[in-house]
Design a protein that fits this description.
- By secondary structure, the protein is of the alpha/beta class.
- It contains 13 helices and 13 strands.
- Helix 1 packs across helix 13 and helix 10 packs across helix 12.
- It is globular and about 65 Å long.
């Protein structure tokens, strides 16, 4: 990731990050922070290896241990991890700790009494919908506890900000900041056919790309179940599945594979393993549309990437989404959640109306540049850091 174009910060900060050390979202944020001259130390809540952290700037240090699962009943294990986290962070004399996202990592940071604490709410896995609904006893107790102790909360959409506002003290600022995409890199590739040739997909096929996490939350079954209807109307349709982190839910992956065979659509499906983020512009360019239909979400960067590449996107009709970004018929096509027939109809509509796809792509590019540019979003986050640390006693 390229360094920020902004002027050097007034004061380099000492920052701890509580985040998944293998996540591309973590890497983008961490690399920006390092490139801006701040000192960043990561503690991961997910196991990692050298390959998983290869995308990190070498100036970012990473703890040689990971936070374990957080237990309430086996509280002594949690207390042991809290003490270890405090011992890791106290000697660093930090200016702030930033927890990505609102889950066990952030809970640990709050329990360890890190000050000041910044928490990012991404949507999907942490806050589900426009009304927070706890998913476990730990969530019910520790999410409000964590938000009450946060000095700054960032959210990936205005709707998410509204959902957590009632859990955050009035004096605590909430900023809408998304992970951001490099809009200079995410743009249409001149040779969209090259990837198709490599994957063995016909040049005249109508390619439907599913780039989201290959997890149950993403409703991959709905996408696969829509394909028989799509193929009946458009035999040239082909589904391109990116099995991003599928290994974390092997039973789900096996269930999807069985569904493909049961529906008899194996010849119309091309599956690829997890791919590097820098390869994604070529995948979006090779696709005729992108499909992202989870049951709950924030502002997904995969959707913004597709929009930046001018590939039209079909999304779930979720109240989670900010309407000015996900405007039905203007920037995206919205379909009923979990409804394969609704999804099939939207795909068929795009396959038969190339003009609609071009119009959605052009407007989508404008929105992606205006609302999700990496340098702009990270610059706003850095400015929020500056306000927070300047106000600290």
């Amino acid at each position: 990731m390229t360094a920020s174009r902004a002027a050097a910060p007034a004061r380099p900060l000492r920052i701890a990050g509580i985040a998944d050390a293998t996540s591309v979202h973590t890497h983008k944020w961490a690399n920006y922070v390092a490139a801006r001259g701040h000192r960043l130390h990561l503690v991961s809540y997910r196991p990692y290896d050298a390959a998983g952290t290869a995308g990190l700037d070498p100036r970012v240090s990473v703890a040689d241990w990971t936070l374990p699962d957080l237990y309430l009943k086996r509280f002594w294990l949690t207390l042991r991890a809290v003490r270890r986290l405090r011992a890791e962070l106290l000697p660093l004399r930090l200016d702030l700790t930033h927890a990505h996202f609102l889950g066990p990592g952030a809970w640990y940071a709050a329990l360890a009494r890190t000050r000041p604490l910044v928490v990012s709410v991404m949507g999907g896995g942490d806050v589900r919908g426009t009304q927070w609904r706890p998913q476990s006893a730990a969530d019910r107790l520790l999410t409000p506890f964590t938000l009450r102790r946060s000095a700054l909360v960032t959210c990936w959409s205005r709707n998410l900000a509204g959902a957590v506002r009632r859990l955050v003290p009035r004096s605590t600022p909430i900023e809408v900041v998304v992970g951001g995409i490099d809009t200079q890199r995410f743009k249409r590739c001149p040779d969209a056919q090259r990837l198709r040739r490599r994957l063995g997909i016909d040049g005249d096929a109508f390619v439907i790309l599913s780039p989201r996490l290959f997890w149950p939350l993403q409703n991959i079954e709905t996408i696969v179940s829509a394909m028989p209807r799509v193929l009946a109307a458009e035999p040239r349709a082909r589904l391109l599945l990116v099995k991003y982190r599928a290994s974390q839910f092997p039973e789900h992956e096996a269930r999807i594979d069985r569904l493909i065979d049961r529906l008899g659509i194996r010849s119309a499906v091309c599956a690829v393993p997890q791919i590097a983020n820098e390869e994604m512009p070529e995948y979006y360019s090779a696709a005729d549309c992108t499909v992202s239909v989870p049951g709950t979400d924030g502002t997904p960067m995969t959707v913004m990437e597709s929009l930046a590449v001018e590939t039209p996107v079909i999304v779930s009709d979720l109240p989670d989404y900010d309407g000015d970004i996900f405007a039905d018929g203007e920037t995206v096509i919205r379909v009923q959640v979990g409804d394969a027939a609704s999804l099939a109809a939207a795909i068929t509509r795009l396959a038969r109306d190339a003009g609609l796809g071009r119009a959605l792509g052009a407007r989508g590019r404008q929105v992606a540049v205006a609302r999700a540019d990496y340098h702009g979003e990270m610059g706003r986050l850095e400015a929020a850091y500056a306000r927070l640390t300047e106000a600290a006693p």
